[in-house]
Write a structure and sequence with these properties.
Strand content of chain A: 5-15%
Oligomer: heterodimer
CATH architecture of the largest domain in chain A: 2-Layer Sandwich
Helix content of chain A: 40-55%
CATH topology of the largest domain in chain A: Heat Shock Protein 90
Largest sheet of chain B: 5 strands, parallel
Number of strands of chain A: 12
Radius of gyration of chain B: 18 Å
Order of helices and strands of chain B: EHEHEHEHEHEEEEHEHHEE
CATH class of the largest domain in chain A: Alpha Beta
CATH superfamily of the largest domain in chain B: Response regulator
Strand content of chain B: 15-25%
Largest sheet of chain A: 5 strands, antiparallel
Number of helices of chain B: 8
Number of domains of chain B: 2
Shape of chain B: elongated
Number of strands of chain B: 12
Distance between the termini of chain A: 108 Å
Distance between the termini of chain B: 22 Å
CATH superfamily of the largest domain in chain A: Histidine kinase-like ATPase, C-terminal domain
Largest interface: A-B, 48 and 42 residues
CATH topology of the largest domain in chain B: Rossmann fold
CATH architecture of the largest domain in chain B: 3-Layer(aba) Sandwich
Chain lengths: 497, 226
């Protein structure tokens, strides 16, 4: 019967034709029965037809069937038969009730069956989304993620899509085959976190939607959908859901990557520190013995005969020089290893570090008077005192080594706008032309020893957000100038004096 | 007071220390590990301990904690540069001073002499007057004078000065000083210390940029030299 109509009959013209056919079949079935059955009971057969048409073909074909059935019933079964004329006026009531019942049941049935169909569709979509989410949770690359999303949309909704994902510098790139999409619109959707649409001039026909893949409040990419405008409207909830599922998966991949990079960084930092610490221990232990034993020899009581005493003294000096060089090399290794180190900054007084650097150098500065010019009201600065002491010790050591014997060395500081500028200068030949600080092992002038100390100093100053420059001022000598940012030192609660 | 215990695992460094200290008039005992050192210390009751921090069986700080439960004898720690955290640990465990490797005879003897002449008892001195340079601290009357004329100090400046001056020739960590002078709640406020030390230097040192008495131990703390 009518229930055997092919379900694929979805086009409007086709379903109207099927409705008409169903009505005619009803007439055909009722015709042989008309002699034995009262026409009023035949009405039931026609109502059943309208009901079935509504169930299978929807509300409009059901409406057509309702009207057509009344006419067919009248024509074929109401006396006089085979005319539209009616003998008994009572039949008008039959027609009216028949029409009303047919229309109402038809519409109700059609709506219910439409809702049932939609529910099944939604259920199927939800299930598919659930499966997509499950598959996405297992992805381990963005390539896989893009492939999954695209094939899901193609299979579930027959929609073509592309993914735009940010590269390492945060710029969107089309994943896989480059779509003829618009990187500007995609970027707009990505940056604003809102969907962007590109429609044809008429607002119908083919269009493109760019849906941001958002998760935990930020975009991780853009889902580009190419479909006709009506599909875009109808499937919007599904598309939004897919975009956000893809966003969650992309976010997970992103954070996993970040966590892994951090992990690797921490591991290599720990390894680096361990290696440096044991290297430092292994180098210093023999040096300590060497310096100490040479010293005991040089200071032995009773004193060694002059040539041996001098040899012991030379041994001691060489060992001390070696110790200094090892310290510098280890510092440089620590600074250079893995892109530098983070200084342990605290609020410090510059004058303390200057005094300590001078103290640390001891006899190396004996031949020179060190003149210190620091403003009394210099605020505390945020730096790593141990590292900055090394900078000043290196600069003072260099200055002393290259100065005219007996001349003075100056250490001065002054506040500029947002920085403090420190200079260390001497009287001497100045820096040789072409001294390159970026080459740690460069040597300045005839006498050895500029390179390493200056390179370390520069690295430390830069790690503090400052700059270190060398200059030969017109009045002669050499000058190193470096600056440190002036921060906002913590406020001190003054005591009630 | 002439017995010294050297705790160091490297035989050549031990040799150098032994030669130097023996020549300086000390009776030397040696140990190469924390457990041996504790046994030696218990037996010999040394008047001075020289201790390397990196020992094969345990951290040098463990020796300090154990030793400090029954002895006040000064402890001089030997450490490598760039191990400020280790130095601070050792000092807070009870060490008195440290020497950075490598070091020469002169540096070693200077530290040893400063530690051995340190007045006892360990902390607050008995006398009511402390003198250094031109400065005189009158503890009873809470007054400070420099070259005979009074110096005005705030209560915190005075407390800080007295705390430092009553632990002379000893490295005090920032945290130890902050706890003692400002209280437990300020143990992390190192900027207080910087500013107040600056003010004390301004008032009491001949040249504040080249202090002779209130000395900074970079990354560790301060040392008062009387």
């Amino acid at each position: 019967m009518t229930s055997n109509l092919p379900a694929a009959c979805t086009r409007p013209a086709c379903s109207y034709a099927a409705a008409v056919l169903a009505c005619l079949v009803t007439v055909g079935l009722a015709w042989p029965l008309a002699d034995w059955i009262d026409p009023a009971n035949l009405v039931m057969l026609f109502l059943l037809t309208v009901f079935l048409v509504a169930l299978r073909l929807g509300s409009r074909p059901a409406l057509l069937a309702a009207v057509l059935n009344v006419l067919l019933f009248d024509f074929f079964f109401v006396p006089p038969r085979l005319t539209l004329a009616v003998d008994d006026v009572q039949y008008l009531i039959t027609f009216f009730v028949m029409l009303a019942v047919a229309i109402v049941t038809g519409q109700l049935t059609a709506r219910m069956s439409q809702q049932a169909r939609e529910a099944v569709l939604r259920e199927r979509q939800a299930h598919a989304l659930y499966e997509m989410a499950r598959d996405l949770a297992g992805t381990f690359s963005v390539k896989q993620l893009a492939e999954l999303t695209r094939s899901f949309l193609r299979q579930t909704a027959g929609i073509e899509s592309h993914l735009w994902l940010p590269d390492s510098r945060g710029r969107l790139r089309a994943e896989g085959q480059s779509p003829d999409g618009d990187v500007k619109l995609a970027t707009r959707a990505y940056e604003r976190g809102e969907p962007v649409e590109r429609l044809g001039p008429t607002g119908a026909g083919p269009g493109t939607a760019f849906l941001p893949m958002t998760a935990s409040g930020r975009s991780f990419g853009v889902l580009q959908i190419d479909a006709d405008v009506e599909t875009l409207r109808r499937e919007r909830p599904l598309l939004t859901a897919v975009a956000s599922l893809a966003g969650i998966a992309a976010g997970r991949l992103h954070y996993a990557e970040v966590a892994q990079a951090t992990q690797v960084g921490m591991e290599s930092e720990r390894l680096r520190n361990t290696v440096l610490a044991s290297l430092s221990h292994d180098l210093r232990t023999p040096l300590t013995a060497l310096v100490g034993l040479a010293d005991t020899l040089a200071l032995a009581q009773p004193p060694l005969p002059p040539p041996h005493g001098e040899t012991a003294q030379a041994l001691r000096n060489q060992a001390a020089g070696l110790a200094k060089m090892v310290n510098n090399l280890l510092d440089l290794a620590r600074l250079a290893a893995g892109g530098g180190m983070a200084p342990r900054k605290e609020w410090q007084a510059l004058d303390e570090v200057v005094a300590c650097a001078i103290e640390q150098l001891g006899t190396a500065l004996d031949a020179h008077a060190v003149e210190i010019d620091l403003p009394e009201d210099l605020p505390l600065l945020e730096f790593d005192a141990v590292l900055l002491e090394r900078v000043l010790a290196n600069l003072l050591d260099n200055a002393a080594k290259h100065a005219v014997p007996g001349s003075a060395i100056w250490v001065a500081a002054r506040c500029l706008d947002d920085r403090v500028e420190v200079t260390v200068s001497n009287e001497g030949p100045g820096f040789p032309a072409g001294l390159d600080l970026t080459m740690p092992f460069a040597r300045g002038g005839l006498r050895a020893g500029y390179g390493l100390g200056l390179a370390i100093s520069r690295a430390i100053v830069e790690a503090h957000g400052g700059r270190l420059q060398l200059e030969n001022p017109p009045e002669g000598g050499a000058r190193v100038r470096f600056d440190l940012p002036l921060g906002k030192p913590p406020v001190l609660e003054e005591e009630a004096a | 007071m002439t017995q010294v215990l050297i705790v160091e695992d490297e035989p050549d460094i031990r040799r150098f220390l032994r030669l130097t200290l023996a020549q300086d008039g000390w009776t030397v005992a040696e140990a190469g590990s924390v457990s041996l050192a504790l046994a030696e210390a218990a037996e010999r009751r040394p008047g001075l301990v020289i201790l390397d921090l990196g020992l094969p069986d345990a951290d040098g700080s463990e020796f300090i904690r154990a030793f400090r439960t029954w002895s006040d004898a000064p402890i001089l720690v030997l450490s490598a540069r760039s191990q400020e955290a280790d130095k601070v640990d050792a000092l807070e465990a009870g060490a008195d001073d440290y020497l950075v490797k490598p070091f020469g005879v002169a540096e070693l003897l200077a530290r040893v002499h400063a530690l051995s002449r340190r007045r006892l008892p360990r902390d607050m001195p008995e006398q009511a007057l402390i003198r250094f340079g031109e400065t005189e601290i009158d503890l009873a009357r809470r007054q400070v004078s420099r070259a005979g004329s009074p110096v005005k100090l705030t209560p915190i400046e005075f407390n800080l000065l007295v705390y430092l001056a009553s632990h002379p020739d000893r490295v005090l960590t920032q945290r130890q000083i902050l706890r003692a002078v400002w209280g437990e709640g300020h143990a992390g406020d190192s900027h207080y210390l910087r500013i107040y030390i600056g003010r004390l230097r301004q008032k009491l040192e001949a040249d504040r940029t080249r202090p002779r008495h209130l000395l900074t131990e970079t990354g560790v703390g301060y040392r008062m030299v009387l």
